[in-house]
Structure formats: C-alpha cells, structure tokens
C-alpha cells in the first residue's frame, strides 16, 4: 500500500539535477530538501508489497479535459546487483492504449512475472496501484525563471517469490535505479541509481555508474552540441579494493569537433585512434570514490538511441569480466522523416448546399527507423464548409482537441517505421462552388520544421436548377393601371445579344434558363421599360411592368420669355427593374431574424457607344439564431448587366440612380431563397442647355 502519511516515504535518492530532459515529465529532479526518489515501507523485514515514488519536473497527465490518463511514456525502477547486472524491471507502461504495471525478470530465462492493467483516478483511490500526486512548484522546466508544478509518480507491486523469483528485498545485494523512457524496452531518458543494499561483508565491492551531467538528452541529427559525462567509481563495501583499472570506449558514431578532455587530466589517458580511455585507479578504501569527467563537442552521425560510451572496471578478486557500465544515452532524431497525408471518404462531387457526410482520415507516418517526438498537427476546416453535426473523432493514438473548426492532434512519440491515424467524421455542406479543399493544416515535430499539408479536395457544383424558369406578369400603363396591348418584348443575354423577340397583349410570359437577362418592353407612345432578371434559384418570377406615356417636356424653339431654369436634354433614358433571385445555404436549425440585401458598389461603362455595362456588387446580410446564440453571416455576389443603346450618346453626360425597393425570402431546410427588387434609372443628357417654363 501507499503510506497514509506522506512523511512515511523513505528517501532513497536525494538529489537529481534538473537536466531539462525533453519533455519535462520524464525529467527526475530532487535536491536536499525536496528529494528525488523514495520507497515504502522499510524493506526489512520483507513487506508483502513495496511502493516506489519519483519526483518529475512536469505533469505526466495528458492535457485532455475529457480523460485522466498518463502521457504515452514509460516510468519505472530497475533492480541491479553489485556487478551492474540487471535483475528486474518494474515499469509503468503507458506507451500503448492499454496501460499496464509490469515486472520483468531480466535474467535468463527472462519472463514477465507481473502484468496488471491499471487506470488513474482523480482524486486517487486507496485501491490504486498507480497514482499521480502534486509535488508543488519547486523546479523549473526549460526557463529557470519560471517555476512550474512538479509531480510525484507512485506505483506499487506485490513482493513475493512469484513476482520476484530468487530475490529477497531484505537480504539480496542490489540497488534501485529509477528511470524514464519513451519506449517500453529501452531506457532512453533519465536513469539515476541509489546506494547498494546489503553489500557483502568482507568482500571487495565496487559501485560504478556513469551519467550525463550536462548536454542535451535529445538532439537533431548533425546538430552540434557539447556534453560532459561523469564516471563514479566508489568502494561501497567493507574492505579495501585493490588494482582497480577503468576502461571506457567512446561511441564510433560521435563526430568530435573538439578534442576530448579529461578531468582529472593526470592519471587517465585517452587514445584517439581507438577512442579508449584507460585509468589505473589503484586502491580505494571503504567509502572512498573517484570521479572522471569526460567532455567534448560533437555531432551524432546516426539517429536513434545512442549510448555515448561504454566501459568496465576490473579489480583484484572481482569478476573476470569486470563491472560493465554505460551512460543513459542520447536520443538522436532525424529530420524531414514525417509525412502527413489526408484522405477523403465520402461523396464527390456534390451540389452546393447539399448536406452530406464525410470522413477525413489524417495519417501521420514516420518513414525513418528512428523515433519522432512531439508531433503536432493543426488542421482547420474550410471556411466555406458548414457543420450540420459536430465532429466525431477517432484517434489511434495521441491527444485530440477540437475548437470551432480547428483540430489539434498531438503525439508525444511516433515510433520508427510506424504511423498513426485520426478519423474525423461529420455532416454538413459547402456554401460555395468550385474545387473545395476540406482543410489545410500544418505539421511539425522535434527536429522537424513546420510544413503544410492538405487533402485533394472535392468538386462542388452549383445547385442544379430547373431547365426553364417562368418569368411572367401584367403590362400596365403607369398611373392609370390600364393593361397595354401590342407590346414588343425583346430578350437579351448578359452580353446584349438578342435571343428572343415577341409581342404580348396585357400579360407576358417567358421561359428562361438560369442566368442573367435584360428584357426590353417597347410600345409606340411609351418610354422603353427594362426588366433585368438574375435567375439563381428555382423559384418562378412574377413581376408587373409599368410603362410611362411619353409627354412633351420642352420646346427648344419657343419664344416664350418666361423660361428661367436651365436643364439638359435627355437623349436616352433607361428605366429598369432588376429582379435578383438567388438561393444561399444556412444551417438547417438556424432561425432567420433579419435578411437584408445591400448594394456595395456600382460601376457603369459604355462600350462602343452601343452598350451600357453595369456591375453591381451585392451583399446579403443575414442575422440568425442557432443554439440560442445570435449569429451573423454575409454573402457577396457580382451582378453584370447589359443595356442596348439605340441612339448615339457621344458628347452626353451620364447620370444614374439605383436603390433596393423590396426584399423577400423564404427558408426550406438549409436553403434560403431570396428575391430583391432593385430600381435602376439612368439618363444620357445632352451638354446643350435648354430652358424650362416654370409657370
């Protein structure tokens, strides 16, 4: 069991330098007042259960508000004898989806003697076999000015001959080495060992360890950095140890950029050809120790977990092979070996506004044999896409955070030659046509600079409208409302090309394909009337035409002396009603509170004295309520109109007026059909002034 009183934990390792292991939650830390590693209860007499505690320089819990789980790493304790032979490994294995507390017998034949799944609870329960406890703000992660929370990781295992065959905590000779790692089968992060339990009486005993006291624990391949390694040789027995000779060999995959320096410089020797350090230490009395520091600046030539150097210590009456030792190693990470792809599973093509369901599969693949750490993928759904349902995700590994249209997927570790997937499933629609990419994202990792990725996209085609839309209405005289007969109706396309001419009595009816048209109404004795229809929806258009009768406005040759207002001669007049019929998509559950059409800008241009081109930039503003929240959305459209000019308008001034007279709409499902009536009046005015009778 874990101790009820935290003060009952027994300190085993006092200090552990904050090496700022990357990341911080695999950095074991401690000092004289806040110790690094503990065990409980006292190992003599043999307890039925033994617990371990380590202080971590960071939170080992995933940053996920929906779960309370460990990050995907491995923490544990190794039991090592006085010859540095590994006997047992106790590991908190969170490297996969099923978390397990395990004990592995490491001596031949090796076997797993304890293998129990676990889950974390917050707050912890008395039945927990693994727990995380806040340890206060004492050690800084990265920035020494910024103290952050430290945490204890506690775990406990049974103590019996089944779990630890041939071993006795109270009488065997051993030491405990607390470790952290990114992998279950390799210790590649922290590795700190304590003093020897039960040293043999009357026999020579040496305790040998090597540690990296400065330098990075993770480095990008071919980057340059400096390291200092320390070998400690201590007489941890009760009698003197004689004829001690240390041999250490530096890894051939280290490319040295400076000479290897040794402290002390007298005594140890270094052979640069064989990369071998030799030191005849001689004799150490009980409790005496010797330290050897090895420093260099270098590049690492291969990726992977690289032990910087290995060696052994031989001594009189010691084992023939000596006592082996090595450092905890450095993680060398390759660059540009992360590939991120995205697959679309769902319909292609689709119509604009059509509600469908898709699954986007993001695949993060490590194409190198070496691991990649701290993978971060940030993806954002196309702003032209509208969700009808929330995103449902399924990640093979890692942490996923959703915020509006942004998806953040982080992987603490991506093993060599492996991949992970994230499936995003949702329903919705595009409110814009053309080739639409669902989302563009950015990916990065430790040693890998940020790069872009995206899906291939799908084709979104305009909504399919009926072949012909009916445009109809009455033809009346303005003022009297009298129905007119013998009215010539001429239809032009958007470039002023005539496509139809027909005479109508009292009523007109046209069947037009979706598009933009100019319809001219002419009758002797009446001013020409124009009707523009912009057909972008499937609703029929009903609009009455009102034509003005011609009257004599001025007499250029009059001798009347009561003429006192100057005005121009109107050479040509355009009187047009513009019907803008279109459809936009909005969420099915949205309730429209206000819809307004606005004319943002007007551009007019005369072409070859025969056509007037008018371009209207329209904005549709919609205020709607969705999920009890008020929202705003706008759409823009460019309307291009063409009016045929029947007279020469050279040397004339152009004046116009345009305004929106009426707006109407209806909503069906996620489709909003909208019709706006726009009044457009334009005059080509002769530069010659005339007088108007004011009486």
Automatic annotation (TrEMBL):
Record-annotated DUF11 domain positions: 227-320
Pfam families noted in UniProt: DUF11 (PF01345)
InterPro entries referenced in this protein's UniProt entry, alphabetically: CarboxyPept-like_regulatory, OmcB-like_DUF11
Protein name in UniProt: DUF11 domain-containing protein
Organism: Fervidicella metallireducens AeB
